[in-house]
Amino acid sequence: MNWNDMDFFPVMGEMLTSENTLQLDFTAANQALDAVNLSDTAEFDRFVFAQLKSAGKKYGIGGYLENRAIYRRSEVFATESADFRNIHLGIDIWTEAGAQVFAPLAGKVHSFQDNTGFGNYGPTIILEHELEGKTLFSLYGHLFRKDLEKLLVGQEFQAGELLCHVGPFPENGDWPPHLHFQLMWDLGENWGDYPGVAAEKDLEFYQENCPDPNLVLRFYPKNS
Asked: Helix, strand or coil for residue 94?
């Protein structure tokens, strides 16, 4: 499949470039995280958006396959050490609540639900697409609850059509506002939900099933 020959509508309604984005580091190597009480969402929110304000950027980017330190904030990820999920399978776009999110390519609603709980996805939509004879799913997490109110399974969206909005905390799973955008080839038995973070021991499977969202976002950071 040649992704470079495909056209995708910008998920945020505009291209993500080095001019309007800042790459954010949520790995253990970022010692600034040690001073943040990540379980306090308001404090976490101030930490994220202070960086964007200081850099004069509209969006923060959280990377695909990033080994993250921030999941210690929630019991959603706190399993046995061998199963601890800390490898990020999507790309996060941190921006103000209310930001519009658009369908990057034509598709239909596969499923949706409010994945409640501290540190979870909150309101989530999964679209189903046909791409060169293959089925591809795209997931949009941490939305407004109102985005789910009139949504229907099977509802069709065209590329560039308004799909949803970046949600506020606490209804977005209690995170600083951001969109979790992820691609999957196979959902298995999942409905309105799919793991967005993997344990290191399961990474080979998830990396194969969850292609790099940047194939659609087309953002290649140049931030120093």
From this structure: strand
